Fold each of these.
Amino acid sequence: MKKGELLTINIDKLAFGGKGIARVDNRVVFVEGGLPGDRAEVKIQKVKKKHIDARITDVIKPSPLRREAECSHFGQCGGCKWQNLDYRHQVQFKREQLLESFRHLAGLTPEVIHQTTPSPLIFAYRNKMEFSFTDNRWLVPEELADPRIKKDFALGLHVPGSYDRVMHIEKCWLQDDVMNRILNFSQNYFKQSGLPVFNLKTHEGLLRFLVLRKSFSHGEYMVNIVTFRPAESLLADYANKLNSQFPEITSIINTVNPRVAQIAFGEEEYVLSGQDHITEKMDEFTFEISANSFFQTNPLQAVHLYHTVQKYAGRHNNLIWDLYSGTGTIAMFLAGNARKVKGFELVESAVMDARNNCAGNSIDNCEFIAGDIRDNISGTSDNPDIIVCDPPRSGMHEDILKAIMNKRPQKIVYVSCNPATMARDIQQLTTVYQVAEIQPIDMFPHTYHIESVARLELK
Ligand SMILES: C[S@@+](CC[C@H](N)C(=O)[O-])C[C@H]1O[C@@H](n2cnc3c(N)ncnc32)[C@H](O)[C@@H]1O
């Protein structure tokens, strides 16, 4: 088999990462866009030692799980790889992939993994979207044929796997109607404004990102234009016009990223209009979210994640450790079930947010320790009843796992966005702990991302 060859295959599974899997002559073929049940003609793109990568050229017989994707950008934008897969099957596959990750774990029976909690909204569920400006628009095949479309401006999303190819987005189904209208207004305004787009090669120009945020509970919207240098006066007219068209906008900000790296993070911040934050409520807690704050992007589902952590932690604890505590949301949800919650977090600004979030909600039994957990955890002499951890995708360092096992809390609640590293870490913990239950929670419909919470009890 070689590159460019056409094959006719039957796809029978989904791989971790969302691609379809077929087997040909005992070799695994990963098919971008393929769904279980599809019979398709595919073109080989890469032949590797252990597998083949291929792309669908023709769906001969579509899988019964297929549905029409709502979005006109589906297949070209990298955002929603599974919009063509019926949602009930998306959540089912997420559970199956979790099971697959834990397959090698001795003693774990499938019943331990609950059915995935579906997201309350499957469209318009995001409270934050980042759109990039470009002066070199990426044209999709249908656009290439239209001579009226100019390449010198776009405000949209990245083509998958590419940092410098940005395609125009007319409507994104992951954000609500107001956010789509703000996007369209901004595309038209800046296209005609004459303000230069920041160029990724020459590092000249101004406009970098449009970041939209929304609070579901208060119906407030924030618009943040990220520029290469301060642009308060240059953006004044834009802010005025936005305000007159969108009464829902309560905050217009200009943040500045003067660095070469193309990230939507501002080092300086200028308030062009309204407040410097929007306010979100979850249960009885209120959060002030500013331009640079981290906040879960599907808040209506995040509350179910936090309720699961609350339930697994149980009540009447003396001391809870919250490892990788971020902006302190988990600690806040646990504060009512413990005498004290101690959070450990690397990023100083997240620790400041966590302290402010607690103060703003009159929570006085949470303490946050800034720094690398590896440096801070072993020197801490107190003994927690429970350790909750929510590590990044890479999972936990071996030293931290050892330190946790030395502490021997009664219970561990492990929150994860990566089943592979979660299973690897839990494997180590099972020398002392047993897995009582795992709850997958779908935070990101139409993507293959899987969030889950595990409860481990001391054997
Ligand atoms: C998945 S997030 C947790 C978010 C948090 N639960 C929240 O709701 O805000 C992982 C967090 O781990 C932090 N982190 C990563 N490596 C760390 C380390 N070695 N020590 C302490 N914190 C670390 C990151 O800064 C990030 O805030």
Note: The chain has three domains: 6-66, 88-121+298-458, 128-290.
Amino acid sequence: MSVIRFENVTKKYEDHTVLQDFDLEVRRGETMVLLGGSGSGKSTILKMVVGLVSPDSGAVFVDGQEITRLREEDLMPIRRKIGIVFQEGALFDSLTVRENVAYRILESDGYTMEEVDDWVFRLLGFVGMQDAIDKMPSELSGGMKRRVAIARALMGSPRIMLYDEPTAGLDPITSRITCELIMRLRDLEGVTGILVTNDLQAVRALSGEVSAKAPDGTVGFKPVPPETTLRNTRFVMLKDGRVHYEGGDPSREGGDEYVREFLA
Ligand SMILES: Nc1ncnc2c1ncn2[C@@H]1O[C@H](COP(=O)(O)OP(=O)(O)O)[C@@H](O)[C@H]1O
Ligand SMILES: [Mg+2]
């Protein structure tokens, strides 16, 4: 079953058409890598999945439920299923790292402070940021902020993750750590995701490696043989408001001139 589906979606801003009769399907457990030039509508698509932007026509479905015409309060349970790492990775400047990560859960009821704290600590461990738990965002580097933003998005264990250019502007090491987090969620947790990126290094990692857990619990990454296509990773490239390419890693599997040039 598809977890995210766009059906015949059209979106215009004044007379500028961003999406035109656009269809997209993301299946359970799959990470879709969404490629496209600046202004091609990538961020708009992610915002539509959480109902922050509405299509002019057509429909968007999450877990089989049409969300296109839901009221704000009916969108809340949908948004709880989805973790989103925004393009800017924005944290709340006046909150500590701990409070930033806990934010999604404090809004809801039913957890003790200890449970929330424990959860925050584990998520910060996942992104390698436990030492920063009591720091303010202003004390962190760009890469550290991005990792905290990922931890925050993971609060509540969403089964769907949306990442908007999560490695843009990061140094190679932090970028690599971010890709590894995304691969772990994909391969070991079965999280369904959309990853918007123009980062060739990230594309190579996502399509060329899988994560695996050793008996001692440590996680490693191994290369996928060149002739193999990962079944849990599909690529979609946007152009002129539509899907221009769909399939395996276009830098391995051809694609046309436009796609190759884009990834060059
Ligand atoms: N709120 C808005 N008002 C007007 N135009 C917008 C708005 N949001 C996005 N756009 C325009 O829509 C197009 C797609 O934007 P976006 O989805 O952010 O592209 P991408 O993430 O692929 O760079 C761009 O031309 C952008 O300028
Ligand atoms: Mg964008």
Note: The mean pLDDT is 91.
Amino acid sequence: MKFVLDPALGKLTKWLRILGHDAIYWRGDQKGLMKLAERENRVIITKTRKILQESQGRLTVFFVTENNPFLQLKEVIEGLKLKVKPEDLFSRCLICNEKLISIPPEAVRGRVPDYVYRTQGSFSECPKCRRVFWGGTHYERMMEDLRRAIGEDNGGEF
Ligand SMILES: [Zn+2]
């Protein structure tokens, strides 16, 4: 399932990417958003009632009622019955939405802090912006947020 989210849902877009989903954050007008959803067969996630009304029957629209991004995430996971798969977590660039590619530690030497190079075993890179990603404290903190947001009863082994 691929998504496109309206301009009110930037944080939720990031969280869907953390879960590994293809999620486009749309910052243009409503017409463009609906066109993109139709062309690329994307589910629209929106807080705008007008989009829900205008696309009725033609496009798949999920209407978000919550204001807090974590509650929105929970709402979307439950509403669309998304599975949270551990192997998909952090597999996508949070900025570009591109799938990350695994790269050997030698390839990141000089591109990440020395300490990170020495202590982390696996790295990945975004093919578009060339940012390097790795585990560590940042990752752990996000995992904790995620567990808190979606709870134990999400149906996955995560
Ligand atoms: Zn990127």
Note: The chain has a mean pLDDT of 89.
Amino acid sequence: MTIETVDTLIIGGGLSGIYAAYLLTRKAESFILLEARKRLGGRILSPEEQGFFTDLGPSWYWPAIHPKTARLISYLKLDGYRQFEEGFGRFQSVSGAVETVSGYANEPQSWRLEGGMFVLIERLCRTIPRKRLRLNHPVCGIEKSGNEVLVNVGALEQEPQARFKARKVILALPPRLIASTILFTPDLAPDLTQAMLKIGTWMAGQAKFYALYDEPFWRRAGLSGQAFSQRGPLGEIHDGSNNKKAPYGLTGFIGIPAVQRRDEELLTKAILEQLALFYGEPAARPTAFFYKDWAREKFTATRLDQPPMYSHPLYAPPAGQTSFWNKLIHFAGTETAPQHGGYLEGALTAAARAVQ
Ligand SMILES: Cc1cc2nc3c(=O)[nH]c(=O)nc-3n(C[C@H](O)[C@H](O)[C@H](O)COP(=O)(O)OP(=O)(O)OC[C@H]3O[C@@H](n4cnc5c(N)ncnc54)[C@H](O)[C@@H]3O)c2cc1C
């Protein structure tokens, strides 16, 4: 098998990897990006429906506290709009009883992106030569060879389907996924591997739904679309409508752990019943319904990510290292950012650090 040689290999085509690719393109440096899935974006996923893009991964950004994201959105000439939150909220207790409560405004204000969050990936990709982006390229092995690195693509138990040699590697994927799915030769130091395994991948154990409607009937009833439930299956609901015109939408997170989300059909039925309980009968008849369980995605979540994560971890480079093997390999990926880790902002910060 021929070995393709390149200056820098980026592993992972989520926001962090794509942003690194964009920065290297601007510096006119030679690189190839290897993405395991047959699509780019990683945790950013926005399927289209009636010209509207339903965010099944991230949907919010916070310009007041995430300056890199705000700058990038403005540089790419993209438009955002405020999360709709006017009106009353709904609250469901453990007993199942539902009451109307005063709504609360998210502080700082959350914003949504026109065109869905995937537009960030799409616009950045316009600047990157297509031949540099290789889809369906899951990396399974990384070997140190003198001052270079050999990277194997394929399934661990099979012969590699492609091989690359690089002078630098940027790991733009969650550290826990790296430690669980990529074989390093020589072995990584045990404390580094342990640290990587202990960094939980943000939202990897979550599932999200999106229901679209022709009319915003909840708004007409004075409701904001915001709801919280202690009973489930939905734990948190928000208005996820298009800006200005239809489709209107309700979206949010499933409140029950991954292990209880086995039967998608039953779960969908229960979600629609719960929406009808909160917002009336029309809520049970969306024009389109989307559901994404990230805990079942092998290029996002591992077994360690299945239990729910109840608070936002304090992220930092694993074992305090931003690189290893004498700076041949650099960490990117939002979970390695010292600030705003887990968020889109962290993905940009970590990518910029790795490229630098
Ligand atoms: C449901 C949900 C809601 C969220 N909400 C928000 C929000 O509102 N605001 C916010 O700021 N953030 C939010 N986030 C977090 C946000 O999505 C992440 O911070 C960001 O997308 C991470 O980007 P990344 O490039 O670091 O990682 P990823 O997007 O995980 O990218 C890693 C990439 O590596 C690829 N990969 C994996 N293994 C391999 C391999 N072996 N070889 C090659 N490629 C590989 C993956 O396929 C993927 O494309 C949310 C996430 C989820 C899941």
Note: The longest strand covers residues 162-171.
